[in-house]
Amino acid sequence: MSNEKTNEFSWYVIHTLSRQEDRAARNLRILGLRIMAPKIIKRRRNEFTGDLIQKMKPLFPRYIFARFRIDNLIHRVRYTRGVQSIVSLGRNPAPVDDQIIFLLQSQMNDEGLVKVCDQFKTGDEVIIRDGLLRNFTGIFEREMKDSERIVVLLNTVSYQAHFEIERGLVSKCA
Fold this sequence. Notes:
Elements: H1 3-6, E1 9-16, H2 21-30, E2 34-36, E3 39-45, E4 52-58, E5 63-69, H3 70-78, E6 83-86, E7 88-89, E8 92-93, E9 95-96, H4 98-106, E10 125-128, E11 137-143, E12 149-156, E13 159-166, E14 170-172
Antiparallel strand pairs: 1-5, 1-6, 1-9, 2-5, 3-4, 7-8, 10-11, 10-14, 11-12, 12-13
């Protein structure tokens, strides 16, 4: 590694132990590193009660991002609890381009959640993927203000109805 590159702050991908993204992030923050651990919300139905369950999960399971000077902290980062390794090309840790980090950060809210969902346009044909109305089709009408809910015009046999539904339960028809 060249000396001029090792003295700069750069973002690196940290490979964590299985299901230890939060532990690694917490311990690296204690070292004073800037951490980015993007998350998404996974929704599913409880198979016994039918309730909608929301759980925060890593966007990239077993990977987080950390910003630091590689020459100063490489060994401390590698041996931090929860960390398996620093992603490398050959023998040298590979810095992540700042544009990639900016792109990810632009999609994240203050809690680190990334909005990952279908972008619907008025008139799109959609299918309900889960719940009591599973496999019914309808037409996307509009998003609800400040909500994860949308309004769909449901098409059933000789009947049409408008209703609100969780965005995560609906996807575009192919």
